[in-house]
Amino acid sequence: MTELEDLCLRKGLRLTEHRRIVLEILDSATDHPCAREIHRRAADGHRIGLATVYRTLNSLTAAGVLTRLTLSDGRTRYERAGASHPHLIDVDTGEILALDEDELARLIEDTATSLGFRLVGYRLRMFGVKP
Amino acid sequence: MTELEDLCLRKGLRLTEHRRIVLEILDSATDHPCAREIHRRAADGHRIGLATVYRTLNSLTAAGVLTRLTLSDGRTRYERAGASHPHLIDVDTGEILALDEDELARLIEDTATSLGFRLVGYRLRMFGVKP
DNA sequence: CTAAATGCAAATCATTTGCAAAGAG
DNA sequence: CTCTTTGCAAATGATTTGCATTTAG
Fold first, then answer.
1. pTM score > 0.85 for this model?
2. In this predicted structure, what is the pLDDT of residue A89?
């Protein structure tokens, strides 16, 4: 896991088994688990406290490796950080399309710039129905 | 406040002073206050409990009058439903700017259309920092 | 060895809920 | 008068933190 070693070096973090485990869980996950769920999965076969999971998620998020996905159900979910891109959600089926729309991305960036901000990321969720 | 009377009638809710106050605060707000903040503003001149604010926000949200804005700072923020518009969030200060960007809105709508969807709504959140 | 990381339990913070009292229709 | 709404305080649930102990470098 070179990326993690690299990251730890750069951020002055120590490369612990726990960070490996949490990152591995998120890498292999097909969903977006919350802290408790990550702990549940990590604790299966390892000795790891819930507080450690929270701390790890926080440091990895601060380090830019993870992104928080805040849905409105109270729990914070996590995913590997990556390219900001627009999503279109089919309101009828719940299906999510991740779009690759350069023009939108550029306009979004330009808008932020024109307001005097440097764009750190964005999330565009469009809700639509098939007519 | 005919709209509220109407709503209460349709939903079998009672038209109370508290619902009026909460809705009025959200209508006149230029920001997106959280429950505590709404309570703070409402309590200025009125006798209203925090629990009532929460209950009111929940029933108005369930009734479709309000929308929850879930940022990743732990608190849920509220706004009048229906207003799809882009937001830019200052990552350093937490300040939220609700933008009125026609060009973006149009492009977003066009994008959905070109994908064969009718746009029901969208949420664009941009995260930026002041250089 | 020394500072960072961990486990556990206690502490916070936002939000919800139980219950008796107050208010709308 | 009946049923909803409210206030207050206690309960919940997610996340954070204090502290003594362990561990990576």
1. no
2. 62
